[in-house]
Amino acid sequence: MTFLRRQSGRVDAPPNMSAGASSRAGFPLLFATAFVAVGVVLTSLAVVRHRQVLAVWEQRQSSVADDRARLVFNWLQERKGDAEVDAQSPDVKAWLLKTAGQRKAGESSAGSGLPHLALLNLTKKFYGYVGAYLLDRDGRVVSRAAGSPTPSPLLAEAAARAVRTGRFQVDWFREGPGRGYLCLSSPVPGTPEIAASGQTGMNSLGVVALIADPYVSLFPVLTAETVPTKSGETLLVTGAGAEIRFLSPLRGGDSAAFQIRPHASTLAARAALNGREVFGEFTDYRGVPVLAATRRIPTTGWGLISKIDLQEALAQYRLELWGEAGVAALLLLALGGWVFGYRRHLWARFLKLQERDSRQLLNSTPDGLLILDSRGRIVFANTRTEMLFGYRPRRATGRGLRRTHPAGKLVRRFSASHYRARTGRRIRGNRPPQGWHLRSSRS
User: Fold this and answer.
1) Which of the four CATH numbers 3.30.450.20, 3.40.50.970, 3.40.50.720, 3.90.70.10 does domain 365-430 have?
2) Integer angstrom CA distances of residue 287 from 23, 284, 290
3) What is the pTM of this model?
4) Where does CATH 3.30.450.20 sit in the chain?
5) Which residues pair with residue 133 across a beta bridge?
């Protein structure tokens, strides 16, 4: 009869369990490999999606910029046509010559020509100008349309530039905070003259100046959005020395037009004024990153910017990216849970097989075998013990050894039975002969 005492808190694995341990060590490596693979796939998808989103916004903002630049150019061409038609009118030329002759003769013509020059009245009335003026080559107003406001002091300077260059001139007149007018000046052609350099030029008789309100006819067309956005806007800018002047209203304030902002090489406005027709990430007048398309308005020196905040442009992309990352995280957690559960399943199955093999091995021994825990309770009894004590193994499991068989009785019965099994002889009173002892072993 052999007793084995199992120490609590300690389980010694058999040597052939090393294969199971190595397989368990492979599961974390498998999970780490899956995690890295999912991370690489998500990163690649994020890069591809980011490029696709930027391509979509490039097409959209470039289309808006091209359309608005074309509208502004066509609007200017129409106003240029109005000014040039009036400047080439025989009535305008005759009136300027008449005024010049009267000035030489010392006659005053102040106001005498207004009722006779109906062309300016018609232009102002039918084309919606704020004012229409006729100036001589010295910058003096010699006639104006009925209802035209008092001319700005800047009008004489604009007329002088048009006379000097002999070309159509566009100027902005600032009228208080966030307000201004557009002056379109066309020189009245006179007689050709030869300059000192030998080049032939046109001696301008004067200038026709038309004053337009861009808030009525130009800016509504410029700022209209096909698809409403929170931060998208289209702006007109012009250079003011080393600084930038924003002509059109800025989003978020009615007093933002005609504001001068400091020069910065990262501004989209600077790229537009430099003639760069590009799309990219810039910084706007607020210092906020934006996606902008820049264009240059021909013959004016203006720049046009169609932009939207980078945060708004990428908001949907980032939301979808976070969603995909969340789904990937859930998949990884599910994979980890499955791997962990499958690992436990395999380990439990492995232990069950080990236990079955161990029970078969212990039941096959010819000796009675009891395994006790630290409190002396039977945790295993092989089939041989049933022949020795009359207890079935299942019935003895979990019971204390002394309760099942008191020590003296157990020793007597075991010794007599063992002596009889070993020698084939009986003894009296179930007492073993001298020299027979109960053997106990621990592990």
Assistant:
1) 3.30.450.20
2) 57, 5, 9
3) 0.65
4) 88-217, 365-430
5) 144, 209
Could you write out the DSSP letters of every residue in 153-174?
Answer: THHHHHHHHHHHH-S-EEEEEE
Q: Of 88, 171, 96, which Cα lies nearest the Cα of 135?
A: 96
* Amino acid (1-letter code) at residue 356: R
- Topology (CATH level 3) of domain 88-217: Beta-Lactamase (3.30.450)
Helix (H, G, I), strand (E, B) or coil at 91: helix
Residues 84, 204 contacting (CB under 8 angstroms): no
pLDDT for the residue 344: 85
Using DSSP's 3-state secondary structure scheme, residue 212 falls into strand
In this prediction, the residues of the chain whose per-residue pLDDT falls under 70 are 1-27, 31, 104-116, 176-178, 192-202, 252-266, 388-396, 398-443
Percentage helix, strand, coil, to 5, in the chain? 50, 20, 30
**pLDDT number for residue 17:** 44
CA distance 375 to 434: 31
Helices 118-127 & 18-87 angle (0-180, nearest 10): 150
Residues 285 and 258: their CA atoms lie apart, in Å, by 13
Joined tokens for residue 318:
């980032």
pLDDT for res 352: 87
Q: How far is CA 174 from CA 110, 135, 136, 154, 240, in A?
A: 27, 20, 23, 9, 13
Q: How many Å is the Cα radius of gyration of the chain?
A: 51
How far is the C-alpha of 166 from the C-alpha of 201, rounded, in Å? 8
**Calpha distance 3→402 (Å, rounded):** 13
The span from the CA of 233 to the CA of 372, in Å, is 85
